[in-house]
Task: structure prediction
Amino acid sequence: MDFAKIISEALKEISDRGIIVVEGWYDKTINDTHITFCQLSDRTNNVSDDIEEDIEHIFQVDIWSKKDEWKLKKEVKKLMLENDFGYISGENFYEEETEIYHLALRFNYLEEVI
Result:
């Protein structure tokens, strides 16, 4: 599965408003609010008769901004849930060194193999 495409499509409403959504990590050259995402892990979820039935993928979606984007965080969560992702957890950080708000959201996605 092309998860970069799936997540980009899920967050298209946000990127259509001019907020950059990109696979990867914080980009200090982008001076505006932007969103990054990456896959953290994958693991076999169910096995029957030695056959893998589905895989659980874990993703992190990060919002980077000079201001606290809690409304954007709620919107990201809503859009991901509408696109078959499950919400695991979220954390809010303030990166003092860069003076950037970092809102991290973790999601899972269950991929059926058979």
